Amino acid sequence: MTTTRRTAHPAVATYVAAVRDELGDLPPDELAEITEDVRDHLDHVAAEYGDDVTVGTLIDRLGAPAAYAAELRSAAGLPEPEPTPEPTRTGFVRSLLRLMVALFGWGAVGLGAVAFVDALFGLSGAPAIFAVPALVAAVVAVGAALLLVTGRDDPVAELRQVPTAPILAQVEEWVRSMPWGRPAIELVTSLRPAWWIARAVALGLVVALVTGSVPFGLVVFLGAVIGSVWLGRRTAAGEVRGRRLLAVQVANAALAIGGLVAVGSAASFAAGDHVQYVDGGYSYDYPGPGFYDQNGAQITNIFPYGADGTLLENVRLYDQDGRPIDLGWSEECYDGAYDEQSFAAANPWGTTSSRG
Q1: What distance in Å separates the CA atoms of residue 337 and residue 328, rounded to the nearest whole number?
Q2: Do residues 105 and 67 both lie within one domain?
Q3: Which of 36, 138, 152, 300 lies 20 to 30 Å (CA to CA) from residue 247?
Q4: DSSP class of residue 311?
């Protein structure tokens, strides 16, 4: 028997998101499991009030999200979070860095997606006009993020202050609240080993694209597989935290963008006709069938002479395969003089032979 999960009420989603923020210091897997339990509990509570339930109703019934999270910690024996330092006034530089992370980060994602689609379908024929700005934006966003978290005890909390970060948290919570959300997240989580391999593949593709050497990219991929799997297992076990975890996530984002661009470029090359165009215009001097001298001038007629210097007539010339020699069409080629027309041909023995 299967059951279909009901979409969470907006009030429930808001309350669960607040509790999740209070427990944000826990390992991702443990936090996801606790969040699911909290959502199930709140769904039952909200069902008692029907569609009229509000966040205020849940707070009156269960207490503030912070208090609810504290009770969960106590009941589950979870460690208390580190004390939060006293809030300080945000300076201009820090505000600017947060804005740069948001703008250049989303710019890198958007331009990277456009470059991938452009390279895949050959829309403009020059995906680099999008790929290069995407990589530059990614570098700027990563640099701003590293400067932003330098010297901070909780880098994740600092990044949550970046504009649009709350929107991402709400989107994540919305996905989790959907009937298909939990199965989809479980499926993605189960594919972690595949993502580790994909990370190594992305690095190999980027190296091959930058260096233009597929064998070198393959060597980098083989070495990266070992490192990626080792790092992935440590991250999944919760051994990578703080700034190191942030560095891993930033590297993953950069590799994702670079890998998409590399895959799109490879697909575009494979689908292309590989015709190379050179600037020089159309030449009307393309040599057609016939014979040409050492200077490239076309030979338009042949006059056979005998040993005594007499012009031979009614002579047919053949090549080594027994085929008649064809000089090609030319206005200057004569089989014989037309009426009222004559021409003179130079005699190799120093005299002139004329026909007319």
Answers
A1: 18
A2: no
A3: 36
A4: B
